[in-house]
Write a structure and sequence with these properties.
By secondary structure, this protein is of the alpha/beta class. The chain contains 12 helices and 13 strands.
């Protein structure tokens, strides 16, 4: 039985850090285990241009532990008003590597997202020309579409057309949650997907059975077990099209435990340990390093990291809460002990 495991330092290719005082909590958690992270731009004041992206990056660096080499990689928030000039300016900064498509109203702070995807054709063309990746929250927001079907409908309605019309555009299907999403990525060129720990570990029963569990609520919502199994198979397959993206999304405990709770699971406190459990259960620890440390860097065209981290087989439990400014933050799966521990 493996009791110690060393891998190349991983990267998180989908991360929410929030802003302001929250950074003092969120940044150290990610910096202790990841070398780089793609930082999502859906703040209360969305990161819609290069100046905002670089200013936000500096705030993140200011919150990193002293002596730490954590590197935030920045993303533009696409809106109906995004211009080709915005994309060009972003491409001229080595710190901005992607732009994020949020359908308006699809998730947290997405009210200023895109309302008509077909009008973004000039933007997508500029992105494939200038080497900016397209990151997609792939859910329709049509009220007549069941929430469990929104990913599949988005792929059929929008993503297939984007993939066809812009063949050189590198696309990441963020936080894929369905068999259909996995199949789309496998069959499409220049296309990859991030997979989260919550979608690999849990299905919708973990959200709804024996009471609603608000800290397991995220968007896209957890799906049925057959979809979870498809995600696990993809993650542990060794395919370079699938890589780590936690979608760790912190919300204050009181904002989760309310009559209209926020969507998002805070997994950054133990992200690498959670992924290791998934791979160990599938007898695929030999595939963990590629998924966590190689495939994302390769797809983004960035060098692989040189340093390493070490995990030891040790049971431990996260605390019930972490401090979060003047409030508290409830970590994902804190009620169940973890079986691996990052050696610090």
């Amino acid at each position: 039985m493996t009791t110690q495991l060393s891998i190349t330092t991983p990267d998180d290719w989908h991360l929410h850090l929030r802003d302001g005082n929250a950074l003092n909590t969120t940044v150290p958690f990610s910096a202790k285990q990841f070398q780089r992270a793609i930082v999502m731009p859906n703040l209360a004041q969305a990161i819609t241009n290069t100046d905002r992206a670089l200013a936000y990056r500096q705030r993140i660096l200011d919150a990193a532990p002293e002596g730490n080499s954590f590197q935030p990689l920045m993303v533009l928030y696409l809106t109906d008003d995004t211009s080709v000039v915005d994309i060009k300016q972003a491409s001229e900064s080595k710190h901005i590597v992607a732009a994020k498509l949020y359908p308006a109203g699809a998730t947290t702070n997405s009210s200023n997202g895109v309302t008509n995807i077909t009008r973004l054709a000039p933007i997508f063309n500029a992105m494939q020309t200038d080497g900016i990746l397209l990151l997609v929250h792939a859910e329709v927001v049509d009220s007549n579409v069941d929430i469990f079907d929104r990913e599949q409908v988005f792929i059929d309605k929008h993503l297939c057309a984007i993939r066809r019309d812009f063949p050189q555009l590198r696309i990441v299907l963020e936080h894929a949650t369905t068999q259909q999403g996995i199949q789309f990525v496998e069959e499409s060129n220049n296309t990859a997907a991030t997979l989260t720990p919550q979608h690999l570990l849990f299905n919708r029963n973990d959200l709804l059975v024996s009471g609603i569990r608000p800290h397991n609520y995220c968007l896209p919502v957890l799906k049925r077990e057959t979809h979870r199994q498809a995600l696990v198979k993809a993650a542990t397959s060794g395919s370079p099209k699938f890589f780590l993206g936690t979608d760790s999304a912190p919300h204050a405990t009181q904002a989760k435990e309310t009559n209209c709770g926020c969507a998002g699971c805070f997994t950054a406190h133990a992200a690498i340990e959670l992924y290791t459990e998934v791979f160990e259960k599938e007898d695929a620890l030999d595939k963990l390093e590629g998924f966590c440390s190689f495939y994302g860097a390769d797809f983004y065209g960035l060098p692989r990291n040189k340093s390493t981290i070490t995990l030891i087989k040790k049971q431990w439990s996260a605390p019930e809460h972490y401090s979060f400014g003047e409030q508290t933050l409830t970590p994902f799966r804190q009620e169940t002990p973890l079986s691996w521990k990052l050696q610090t």
